Amino acid sequence: MKKLLIFISLLFVSSTAYAEMNKTSYTLSDAIEFAVKNNPRIIQSSKDVEIGTYGISEAKANKMPRLDFNSGATRYRYASPITPISGSPLKGSGFPEFDSNIYDFGVSFILPLYRGGRLDAGVTITEIKKSIAEDMFRMSKQDFIYNLTNVYFKIYQLEKLLDANEASVKQLEAHKKNVELFLQTDTVPRVELLKTEVELAHAKQNAIVVRNSIESSYELLKTLMGIEDINRKISLVHENSPADKYPALEEAVNRAFSLRPDYNAVSKKKKVVEEKVNFAQGKRLPYEAFIPGRFKHTFSGQPVIF
After folding, report:
1. Which of 202, 249, 265, 293 has its CA 20 to 30 A from that of 80?
2. Where are the beta strands (DSSP E) in 82-173?
């Protein structure tokens, strides 16, 4: 029963995603929602926030104990002592073993105790950088929504303009027929027909220009929405915008200084510089760490042929 529910839920999710990707008509809200999920620039900005999260974890990890493993291999032209020579053979101390191929490995344990405040400063810097990344993500999202909304209403404006141009073409075509009838009865001069034909040609040209602008605007909208299929055709459904009241100028300025992400990001960058100064000053102070011991073993072996 549980497997059946999981299969049904996966089928529902996949069908919903398929329907969303193959949708052809969008309102402004639908276009923004789809674009925020699929636009590469927005996705990149969200990844920057995720990178900031990992940066905080990395900075906090510097406070934790560290266990280092190291190894090495050295090949000499002539045989060399595997361990340092100590003592004297005359006193009973023999020479160490010699070999041209020497291998070693070791393990060390380090627990940082005090680094002049650099550990805390490093964590603070990464936290502020993540906050800046979140502000930049909001700014990118707001700019993106503004641009998409601008293109959306531009298309709506061009479609209305196209309707007006097509109506003008129909009107001029009807007027041309009337002029031709009047010309047959010699009630109007031929120049009136020529004038009407010129106006009709201009109206048709304007309609073609507007139609091409609509196609270009739709391609731009598809790019903003993250639609990669160039052959996919979409249409827009107009929706009434909410009649929100805008605040007064002074209130709007105060709200902008407190809420605009780019302004907040600049102020936070100042804090990052201040913390970097504290970090640099901490390098003047001593570095204290608990190192109980280090194990290292050196041995010889047969040469490895590559």
Report:
1. 293
2. 98-114
Is 205 inside any structural domain? yes
Residue by residue, DSSP assigns 256-284 as: HHHH-HHHHHHHHHHHHHHHHHHHHHGGG
192 Cβ neighbours under 8 A, 6+ residues apart: 179, 182, 183
**CA–CA separation, 118 vs 289, rounded Å?**
13
CA angle, residues 111, 114, 117, in degrees to nearest 5: 130
- pLDDT in the model for residue 41: 86
Contact 272, 135 (CB under 8 A): no
Range of the domain at 175: 24-70+111-300
130 belongs to a structural domain: yes
71 and 103 Cβ atoms separated by less than 8 Å: yes
Single pTM value for the model = 0.64
Is 15 contained in some domain? no
Question: Domain total for the chain?
Answer: 1
DSSP character at residue 38: H
